[in-house]
Here is the input.
Amino acid sequence: MFQIKRNDTAPSLSVELQAGGTPLTFAGATVAFFMADDASLAMKVDGEVCTVSGTTVTYDWAAGDTDTVGRYRCEFKVTFADTTIRTFPNHGYFYVEVTEDVAEEA
Here is the structure.
């Protein structure tokens, strides 16, 4: 589980995507990031584009992405150069937890 404090935009979320334990390469692919509240499934981040470097995808947080404390389920949707689409992980989710920060509580 990736943890970040409320209203922080760093560090970025970086994940090496794999298929059956084998890292993939993403030449010519586009990758989108989706994040929804774990309980209500309300979408918090809807298809924002990620940076791809080799086998790693990175999502840079934008203002508002981490403004609500809670647990979120996340997916990366890859559209390959041949237009096929694959969602990662293909079983379950990645999780992000946004935690309270002392500065906001004071």
